[in-house]
Specification:
single chain, 200 residues, alpha+beta, 7 strands, 28% strand, globular, signal
Length: 200
């Protein structure tokens, strides 16, 4: 009886320590990407959605999660959605993983986001070159970005190729009129709309 009580106390203490430690979503997603590559996947799109002040912010209408589902991660924000979209043996799948729930793999009927992401890589490379050039200037300013709204990020990986797209809910919403003059904004908005369409 004493051994059983000790075992139960040990298990409960391990569970509470594991729950109190914050997860590094960057490390976790890298491990999953490596596992997918080892399983023969060469093209994948990692989508994640985060927000800064989720406890007071209202989630956007197109959010792929529901309030209260996310968890705080090591990178100092609340993680709302983590999903890999990938092609394996000619078929498309999604692999959803969140801090508090088991992974969910689904077959997708069609996937428009991965082919589109591959077509905008030149635009994203040009965006990076534009920023590199601007950083050398003494002053340069971009329009404001609200930090307590949803932030979307996608990383496309195809072989050795890797490129990232990211956008704030306000860049495609309330402040789009300020951001639309930058050549990379509308292609990124289209990418995230296609991702949401693929996952619904």
């Amino acid at each position: 009886m004493k051994k059983a009580a000790m075992l139960i106390l040990f298990i409960l203490s391990v569970c509470s320590v594991a729950n109190s430690q914050k997860i590094s979503i960057i490390t976790w997603s890298s491990h999953i990407a490596d596992s997918l590559r080892n399983a023969g996947v060469d093209t994948m799109l990692y989508y994640n959605e985060v927000c800064g002040e989720c406890s007071v912010a209202i989630l956007p209408k197109d959010s792929l999660t529901k309030a209260g589902v996310g968890c705080d991660v090591k990178e100092s924000y609340t993680q709302l959605a983590n999903i890999f979209l990938y092609r394996q043996r000619g078929r498309y799948y999604s692999l959803e993983f969140n801090c508090q729930y088991p992974m969910i793999k689904r077959a997708l009927g069609a996937c428009l986001s991965i082919p589109y992401a591959l077509t905008i890589i030149k635009i994203l490379n040009a965006r990076d070159a534009w920023f590199k050039k601007r950083r050398k200037l003494k002053y340069f300013f971009l329009p404001p970005i609200v930090t307590d709204v949803a932030q979307y990020a996608a990383t496309i990986r195809a072989g050795k190729l890797r490129q990232e797209a990211n956008i704030s809910a306000d860049q495609q919403g309330e402040y789009h009129y300020l951001w639309k003059r930058y050549f990379w904004i509308d292609p990124q908005i289209k990418l995230f709309r296609l991702i949401h369409q693929d996952l619904k």
